[in-house]
Design a protein that fits this description.
Length: 428
């Protein structure tokens, strides 16, 4: 595959745009998907898969213009800012080659799962404005249902010439690499094996909590789930972190938490695990930290994902999910509808038969309330160590699946190649 850059050494395009987003990152950077394929090639001795060129090279073949787009579409699209559209930052060669159907623009938002109701129409409108066929635009995103939502929008709007939309769980690679490194190269600090879980839990049975639920950044669904946990009587059964949050009306997915309720549920905040705050260091520390001690001290983790509400129109599987698999821990999802279904789709096993997973396909608030009851059922298990032992095959399958992804190209890249072959009738 041929990839062209304005700054080949830094693997960057959109170099004329100096803008940063609200997290302090450049809006346009290095494509995570391209980085993942490069890692795969390096680990597996694959040569000549990725061909990099400078925009100034004398190169006349078809190619992809790759770039990350960081944070939400409000940051990188230029929506509402007529002079800030991403097309405005492309050089004339790129624009001409896109118009002449010899280049593809790949916008890679795989570090995030943000979706907005206006995104599809905006991208199509800008293709028309810049006289670029939509099938020359490739959008890669951490929203694992982006292809479904785009197909539905295209059908509803009678769109025949379509973009290529590719879902991609990039954090699977990041966490798999770290787990593989800790199991192979860091003998003094390995992640716990299944047998180490059993040995530790047996030795310390009296102190092992039923579940963990870690919450750092305040988001509406986390406030609401904490509200449900508070009233369930289960808080003292788990290792739960929850920072203080502002007291204003939490109107979310059709329900409201009022001032008097907020006064009640916030009176004991912050909740800290091991009496350690989780907001003292920068985000990258917590993103890359594996909570193996917490996994040892609990029987199951409720993964508090970044998105949860049905109105978000997304499904995002972040590093939080794949850390649990690396730590060989059973899990439930405080996340988007059908997250368990998606995990099975990408090769993992879930814990149906051991954990009540009936919450997965329910509407938002019903899902959270059912999840509370699923936690309660785990808490009521009399012999949790034997219960944990019975899940060994699933836990080991998931760990091995995570590591195996390092030795195959990302499926998102395979989909990119298939699309380019289909539209160009040849491999770039």
């Amino acid at each position: 595959m041929n990839f062209v850059f304005e700054d080949k050494d830094a693997l960057r395009n959109f170099t004329s745009c100096p803008d940063i987003n609200t997290s302090g990152q450049l809006i346009y950077g290095i494509s995570p998907l391209l980085t993942a394929v490069s890692v795969y090639c390096s680990l597996n001795g694959v040569n000549n898969e990725l061909n990099y060129y400078s925009v100034n090279d004398n190169f006349n073949g078809e190619y992809v213009i790759p770039s990350s787009v960081n944070h939400s579409p409000y940051d990188w699209t230029g929506y509402g800012k007529t002079d800030k559209c991403f097309f405005n930052y492309l050089n004339e060669k790129y624009l001409n080659d896109l118009r002449n159907n010899v280049a593809y623009l790949m916008l890679d938002q795989s570090l995030e799962g943000y979706q907005t109701p206006w995104l599809w129409s905006y991208l199509h409108e800008k293709c028309i404005e810049f006289n670029i066929s939509p099938d020359r635009l490739i959008y890669v995103t951490g929203n694992m249902i982006c292809d479904e939502t785009y197909d539905l929008w295209s059908i509803e709007n009678k769109i025949t010439k379509r973009m290529k939309v590719i879902p991609y769980a990039h954090f699977e690679l990041d966490m798999g690499m770290t787990a593989h490194g800790r199991s192979k190269g860091e003998k003094s600090n390995p992640l716990p094996s299944f047998q180490e879980h059993i040995d530790y839990k047996t030795k310390n049975e009296e102190k092992i909590k039923s579940f963990a639920c870690l919450n750092k950044r305040i988001r509406p669904h986390r406030v609401w789930f904490y509200n449900y946990l508070y009233h369930s009587g289960l808080l003292n059964k788990g290792l739960v972190s929850m920072n203080e949050f502002p007291k204003h009306l939490y109107n979310w997915e059709g329900k409201m938490i009022y001032d008097n309720e907020l006064d009640e549920i916030t009176k004991n905040l912050p909740l800290q695990v091991y009496n350690k705050p989780n907001d003292e260091l920068d985000d990258s520390f917590y993103i890359n930290r594996f909570n193996d001690e917490i996994c040892l001290d609990t029987f199951v983790t409720v993964i508090s994902e970044a998105h949860c509400g049905d109105g978000d129109q997304t499904m995002f599987l972040s590093e939080k999910t794949f850390k649990l698999i690396a730590c060989r821990h059973p899990f439930m999802f405080l996340g988007n509808k059908d997250s368990l279904k998606m995990m099975r789709k990408i090769g993992y096993k879930t814990f149906d038969g051991f954990i009540d997973e009936g919450y997965d396909s329910l509407p938002t608030h019903e899902r959270l309330e059912y999840l509370i009851e699923s936690i309660r059922k785990v808490d009521n298990i009399e012999n949790k160590i034997e219960w944990f032992k019975s899940m060994e095959d699933i836990i080991e399958h998931n760990y091995n699946t995570l590591i195996s992804k390092l030795f195959a190209p990302p499926e998102a890249y395979n989909e990119l190649k298939r699309y380019c072959i289909k539209t160009t009738k040849k491999l770039l």
